Amino acid sequence: MARHLEEKDLEKLMLTAEQVQQKVEALGAEISRDYAGKDLLLLSVLKGSVIFMADLMRAITIPAEIDFMAVSSYGSGTKSSGVVRIIKDIEIDLEGKEILIVEDILDSGATLSYLKELLLGRNPSSVKVVTLLDKPSRRKADIRADYVGFEVPDEFLVGYGLDYAEKYRNLPDIGVLKPEIYTA
Ligand code: IMP
Ligand code: MG
Hints:
The protein is of the alpha/beta class. The protein is built from four helices and nine strands, in the order E-H-E-H-E-E-E-H-E-E-E-E-H. It has helices spanning about 15-35, 50-60, 110-120, 180-184, and strands at about 10-15, 40-45, 65-70, 85-90, 100-105, 125-135, 145-150, 155-160, 175. A six-stranded mixed sheet has the order 4-3-2-5-6-7. Strands 1-9-8 form a three-stranded antiparallel sheet. Helix 1 packs across helix 2 (about 50-60). The radius of gyration is 16 Å and the shape is globular. Magnesium ion binds next to loops.
């Protein structure tokens, strides 16, 4: 397979594509068991979770709808601004839906706690969260994910959907970005 040019910007590899894929399969199986017979809506938070969403939905073996929302809390830096803005909302009626928010990474928790409150106000049956990565050491909001792929240390990660200034999303593995890239 062709090497990605952007790999030179990684300090180290954190999770290989194979490790991620195994975990996604396991999460998909667990979610399929837990939501059997329910009206499952997978709600992906753009853009970071699109790759995870695409893999996870295929690992889920029960009927599921999908939709997308876009929020912004970051600007182009590596620290959350804490201010969440809705950039794209969902159009469908959420009444009675079992919503599973699909996130790439849970960091301060500001984005998710805002989103969860907003969705709960629209009368779904439930709102739960699956996140591929969890950085519990950085949590500020009182929120936890119902399904977690991997707990990761407090380092800035890119790849498998995660970006720095909109780059690196297409790397198949997840790695730690060289600090000189964002301190330069
Ligand atoms: P929170 O609101 O601080 O929990 O931020 C969550 C969002 O910040 C994630 O959905 C990512 O888009 C972004 N984010 C947090 N940590 C990282 C990281 O290490 N790499 C890339 N994006 C990150
Ligand atoms: Mg995100």
